[in-house]
Design goal:
It holds the Pfam family CN_hydrolase. This is Acyltransferase. Belongs to the carbon-nitrogen hydrolase superfamily. NIT1/NIT2 family. By secondary structure, the protein is an alpha/beta fold. The protein has one domain: 4-Layer Sandwich (Nitrilase/N-carbamoyl-D-aminoacid amidohydrolase). The chain is 26% helix and 27% strand. It is built from 7 helices and 15 strands. It has a 6-stranded mixed sheet. Strands 7-8-9-10-13-14 form a 6-stranded mixed sheet, covered by helices on one side. It is globular. It starts with a strand and ends in a 20-residue tail after the last helix.
Amino acid sequence: MRASLIQIAVDEGESVESRRRRMASLVRGQAGTDLVVLPELWTTGAFAYEEFGSEAEPLEGPTYEAMAKAASDAGVWLHAGSIPERTPEGPLYNTSLVFSPSGDLAAAYRKIHRFGFDKGEAVLMGAGAELVTVRLPETVLGVATCYDLRFPELFRGLVDLGAEVFVLPAGWPERRRAHWTLLAQARAVENQAFVLACGTAGTHAGVPQAGHSIVVDPWGEVLAEAGPDEEILTVDFDPTKVTTTRNQFPALKDRMLGLQPPRRQPDR
């Protein structure tokens, strides 16, 4: 199976519409690839909080239309990164879109863990509430986004739904790049799954981005890693290695579920 991660730079001097056209062209250039992955919030920039409201779009808005056509033109499965989604009810969401090679929407995932603590995304966007997987002919994708990477229980839940390949778009800051690599490898090892993590290059609202999109195998080996600048990272991998790894080292069978906190000892 061949995957291409498109690590695009988000330049504040480039309009959203121009970047949308440029990204569609890059996706079309990946014809012959099985799966193409784009970064988080590449239309606006993950840290351009002030742009979320003005650039938010409905689920089936201009980015949806452009990416659906690009997926169909290239004949690829496309994880189109994420967009700031505006819903009829009012809340914004950080929403990922996954398209089939025919251009049909295969899945949408609203980011569950929002970054920012008491500001930014954490207060401007609603939290998703559903785990999402997508069945491809070769494997099952588990969908997560950026800050989700820090929450291992989400990935365990995806494994329980059959996920073998985690696809994670991100807008990860350069100052925490060491965490990006470490956590991507940890999620791969503990779940015995592939991790395809696609970040952005450039600077969002003054925040330098880490780049360094990465593909990790079920043993934690880095199969490919991008540099800090714009790059298309393409890698061939064998999805059946997940089953082989889980059979050779069946650690997931030893999970202890439903553990309870210790009972409080009576006062003496």
